[in-house]
Design brief:
Length: about 110
């Protein structure tokens, strides 16, 4: 059974930083794209960033220059370094891993508030 375990969410002041981690465990083979999505209250889930097996990254315009996605293929882990956080970044952040199937984590809450 495949599990995605996210960590690193929490409360941070505007301008602060957080680092999210997501580790995939279980029988998962042939991971291709790993990514992060987020869902703010009353809004639809949206793409934040993705990264391919060959480390090609893509970002939503709203986070470009502030967030950095990275991955450790040996550990089946994806990270999201979030800097210069804004109140509008407040959301539940979900990890996504694609192989033969599409897997989702349960989400970790990020709150940006003074």
């Amino acid at each position: 059974q495949v599990q995605l375990v996210e960590s690193g969410g929490g409360l941070v002041q505007p301008g602060g930083s957080l680092r999210l981690s997501c580790a995939a465990s279980g029988k998962i083979f042939g991971i291709t794209v790993m990514g992060w999505y987020r869902q703010a209250p009353g809004k639809e889930r949206e793409l934040v960033a993705t990264i391919t097996t060959y480390y090609t990254a893509d970002y939503a315009d709203s986070v470009k220059g502030r967030f950095t996605i990275s991955r450790d293929n040996a550990k089946n882990t994806v990270y999201l370094q979030m800097n210069s956080l804004k109140p509008e970044d407040t959301a539940v952040y979900y990890c996504n891993v694609r192989s033969a199937m599409n897997y989702w984590g349960k989400g970790t809450l990020v709150t940006v508030s003074s």
